[in-house]
Every structure is written in structure tokens, then in C-alpha cells.
Amino acid sequence: MTNAIRPATPADLPLIARFIRDLAEYEKLAHEVRFDETVLEQHLFGARPMAEVVIGEIDGEPQGFALFFHNFSTFEGRPGIYLEDLFVRPTARGSGLGKALLLHLAALAQDRGCARLEWSVLDWNAPSIGFYKSLGAKPMDEWTVMRVDGPVLAQLAAQSRASIAQS
């Protein structure tokens, strides 16, 4: 069994979409998947990509992926990599592919001069938490993820536009 990691190409878009849907199903969040593949393609492979994807293969067959993007640490004064999604098909778990994907991102972070590699994990996902801890990852329990989206995001943006218009 040979693991390989390669950058995704636009031809991989249907595969990436399937992996995202499979991950959402595993995380019991399939009802939240709303992406349009054309828009996803633009953000991954367009003129100004917002994220990158690597595909993990076992014996030449795609079995997982990692989707990531750069963030920035003001305290470090350097960029970091934020791993948005890591997924390995259930039949390929235990093959070392998940570890290979994380090691690839760690090397990429080092090569790009990043200060850190970060990600979030659902608090009920004990197998993943155990796996990440076994690699030396530390939970950041003192931090709470905050989010605005949908109508709230639109409302805040409208407030900003109204404020600018009045200036």
C-alpha cells in the first residue's frame, strides 16, 4: 500500500465535492452543505484562489483530502495554515493517509515560513481528537470559535454600508 499526496486540479472538483459531502455526513452536518460547484471552483482554482486542496491517494486511488488556507498571526508576525477540512474515507482509515496529509501540511507550513498549523475539531469526535493528540497537537480549550453568517452577516454588512454612506 502506497500513500501519495498531490495538489488538486480543476478536474478534481467533482471528487472534492464528494469528499466535502461525505465529511459533512460523517460530522452529522449534511443539512448545512449548500455550496455551488461553480462557485467552489472559482474560489479554489480561479484567478485569486482563496483556499488550496491536496488529494490523498492510496495505490493511485483518491481516498481523502485536505482543504486549507493561510491565516495570519499578529503575535508571531507570520502566516499560518488553517486546515478547514481533513477527510479520509472510512474504508481507508488506519492506512496512515490522514497522518500523511497532516505531515504534508506541516512540511508545507515550514516551507512557507508559517508559524503554525491550526484546525478545529468537533468536541464529540473522540477518535479524531485522540489521533490529533497522538501527533502532538494541543487543544486550545481557552478559545471559543465565534461566527456570523447568513442574515446576521448581511445585516452587519448593511450597517457598515449605511454608515459609510452617511459619512
Can you walk me through this structure?
With 167 residues, the chain is α+β, with helices and mostly antiparallel strands. The protein has a single domain, classed as Gcn5-related N-acetyltransferase (GNAT) (Aminopeptidase, 3-Layer(aba) Sandwich). The protein has 5 helices and 5 strands, in the order E-H-H-E-E-E-H-E-H-H. It has a 5-stranded mixed β-sheet. The chain is globular.
Architecture blueprint of SSEs:
Layout: E1 3-7, H1 13-26, H2 37-45, E2 52-58, E3 61-73, E4 78-88, H3 97-111, E5 117-119, H4 126-134, H5 150-166
Provide a brief overview of the structure:
With 167 residues, this protein is of the alpha+beta class. It contains five helices and five strands.
Reading off the top of the CATH hierarchy, the class is best stated as Alpha Beta
Supply the number of structural domains: 1
What strand line-up does the widest sheet have? 1-2-3-4-5
Binned, the helix content reads 25-40%
How many helical stretches? 5
**CATH arch. level architecture:** 3-Layer(aba) Sandwich
The span between the termini is: 63 Å
Order of helices and strands: EHHEEEHEHH
Features of this protein?
single chain, 167 residues, alpha+beta, Aminopeptidase, five-stranded mixed β-sheet, 5 helices, 38% helix, globular
